[in-house]
Amino acid sequence: MRLELRAISRLKAGPERALVDEYLTRAGAIGRSLGLGEIGEREIDNRALSGKRAETEALLAGLVPGTLVIALDERGKALTSPQFASLLGRARDDGVREAVFLIGGADGMERSLLPAGTQLVSFGAMVWPHKLVRVMLAEQIYRAVSLLAGTPYHRD
Question: Any idea which positions bind S-adenosyl-L-methionine (predicted)?
């Protein structure tokens, strides 16, 4: 299953960029043996986009039918790390070919545009800076892949 992280705006060089790169590289290395492979990242330049609707359309552009869409949303469901890993593992085992994680802009995403079956996931009730959300998502992807591989990275 191919994994891709899509986010509005670019993450410039710095500690957040370094962490995202590190976690995605680690997840890709472990994930290959699990059928998860390398994890892609698509940054969407929002300077030419006007509003939440245009940003959501840009995030969804090019999705193939059958893609598992996981949108980060403060009103989404808060999952434990094992639940998040299970979500990815079930999708892989069910033959889903692609899972795409979406991080919207400052105003969020236009929910009415999200495909049916989109999973809304929250990192809690607090609002987080987009740079940190990307780091936390990359880390949780790495943690999920590690859990699926049976490594000792995650401890209850």
Answer: 72, 104, 123-128
CATH code of the domain made up of 2-149: 3.40.1280.10
Look up residue 143 and give its amino acid.
R
Domain ranges of the chain: 2-149
Does this model's pTM top 0.70? My answer is yes
Q: Report the alpha-carbon distance of residue 32 to residue 1 in Å, rounded.
A: 9
Instruction: Please give the radius of gyration of the chain, using alpha carbons only, rounded to the nearest integer.
Output: 15
Question: Which residues contribute to the annotated binding site?
Answer: 72, 104, 123-128
What is the structure's pLDDT at 51?
87
Give the whole-number percent of the chain exceeding pLDDT 90. Answer: 74
Binding residues for S-adenosyl-L-methionine, by number, are 72, 104, 123-128
In this prediction, residue 18 has a pLDDT band, given cuts at 50, 70 and 90, of: very high
Res 38: pLDDT: 80
